[in-house]
Amino acid sequence: MEKQAFLVAGGAGFIGSNFLNHMTPRHPDILFINLDDLTYAGNLANLKSIESHDNYSFIKGDIGNRELVQHLFEKFNITHVVNFAAESHVDRSILDPQIFLKTNVLGTQVLLDTAVAHWKKNPDAQNNCRFLQISTDEVYGSLGDRGYFREDSPLAPNSPYSASKASADLMVRAYHHTFNLPTLITRCSNNYGPFQFPEKLIPLLISNALQDKEIPVYGDGKNIRDWIFVLDHCRALEVVLQKAAPGTIYNIGGSNEWQNIEIVKFILKKLNKPESLIKFVKDRPGHDRRYAIDAAKISRELNWEPEFSFEKGIECTIDWYLSNEAWLETVHSASYRRYYEKMYSQRDT
Ligand code: NAD
Ligand code: DAU
Predict the structure, then answer these.
(1) Does 15 contact ligand 1 (Cβ within 6 A)?
(2) Which of the following is catalytic: 36, 37, 87, 137?
(3) Which atom of ligand 1 is least distant from the CA of 196?
């Protein structure tokens, strides 16, 4: 079999860096090329443990830069694309949707076009090549009190972020049907773990609590998310890349539903911090009420199950943030503070 070369787009972000830290040492025979534009969310400090590995290289660049992407496909003879690159934060997509369309939809299209053109020359692309789009359960919209998202649930995205991710999923689907591109799509629930930028609920709450700052809880705090430890997500992606047939979609989730307010109280208790830090604030516009994943397909077909209980995953996450306060300080950059000032100036309370 020809040597595998993975183009990992967005590999300096939260999930992408956990994926590279997991995969690079375990697969010394695979070359990993990390293409990342290092937006506010990308951080090379996340990749310290693998930066000197022979099978790993970093390239700074935009997935929307067609010439660069074509050059990388040629130079490294890319056999796999794993596309994590995205604008990923719902609140930011409400303030400024445009960049979400540019990166998440048009950027993905550049990767798709280039894969089609390059893999056309590969007579055994259906066996040797894969284009894995890292998607999200948010493409399915919001659930009521009952039911679960399945792979055949209708797409009904509600935020500019989730609409951009659903659009990308539809383009991936179209490239499979039209050009026979060997695509895969995974749709995962909310991740938590090391290296997550402290704009998302769990790292924000750990970071604020450590500094005795208020923890903003949107609305009544009763929205439900289904949480998974990031390493379990990465293990699922590994097995999908190894075993899944072209054209398939897999949901990934931890069967671990929590109301936001319960998570906040749970983590404050673990940190020995008072509930008086909680501040209920104005709700997120269009806030999805409940997400819950049915992950039976990946369990049945690929024999994947999450290995971390929520208790264990949260303990690992808290330990990581406690041992990496310097990391937290560097990401609390001027641009981050400016964004928060802007966002909170638009809230009533
Ligand atoms: P993140 O925001 O932490 O990382 C995104 C990465 O993409 C950053 O390193 C950033 O620099 C890079 N990037 C952004 N625009 C780029 C561009 N134009 N070209 C190249 N690189 C670019 O995001 P994350 O939480 O790690 O999410 C990764 C992927 O997983 C996203 O596609 C997201 O939609 C999806 N996802 C996330 C979650 C979650 O809970 N975080 C759950 C399910 C799916
Ligand atoms: O479900 C997968 C998705 O999970 C991913 O596709 C997204 O990239 C990722 O950002 C995440 O989206 P959410 O909007 O669910 O995550 P977030 O951490 O922003 O919010 C989680 C819940 O907590 C949500 O109901 C909003 C609420 N929240 C969030 C923040 C940041 C608060 O109450 N207070 C906050 O300060």
Answers:
(1) yes
(2) 137
(3) 3
φ, ψ for residue 155, nearest 5 deg: -80, 125
Whole-number Å distance between alpha carbons of 265 and 217: 11
- 137 carries an active-site annotation: yes
Contacts within 8 Å (CB) and 24+ apart, 148-156: 148/292, 148/293, 148/294, 149/187, 149/251, 149/291, 149/292, 149/293, 149/294, 150/251, 150/294, 150/297, 151/187, 151/249, 151/250, 151/251, 151/297
Is the shortest distance between the CB of 19 and ligand 1 below 6 Å?
A: no
User: What's the rounded Cα separation, in Å, for the pair 99 and 87?
Assistant: 7
Q: Which of 87, 138, 199, 288 is catalytic?
A: 138
Ligand nearest to the CA of 38: 1
- Enter the tokens of residue 314: 């949260």
Residue 198 Cβ inside 6 Å of ligand 1? The answer reads no
pLDDT by position in tens, the chain (length 349): 679 999 999 999 999 999 999 999 999 999 999 999 999 999 999 999 999 999 999 999 999 999 999 999 999 999 999 999 999 999 999 999 999 999 999 999 999 999 999 999 999 999 999 999 999 999 999 999 999 999 999 999 999 999 999 999 999 999 999 999 999 999 999 999 999 999 999 999 999 999 999 999 999 999 999 999 999 999 999 999 999 999 999 999 999 999 999 999 999 999 999 999 999 999 999 999 999 999 999 999 999 999 999 999 999 999 999 999 889 988 876 555 556 556 656 655 4
Domains and CATH numbers, the chain: 5-192+228-252 (3.40.50.720), 201-224+256-286+309-348 (3.90.25.10)
Whether 88 lines ligand 1, by a CB cut-off of 6 Å, is: yes
- Identify whether the C-beta of residue 100 lies closer than 8 Å to the C-beta of residue 66: no
Determine which residue's CA is closest to atom 28 belonging to ligand 1. Answer: 84
Report whether 100 contacts 160 (CB < 8 A). yes
- Round to whole Å and give the CA distance between 323 and 317: 10
Ligand 2 atom 19: the closest Cα is on which residue? 200
Whole-number Å distance between alpha carbons of 178 and 169:
14
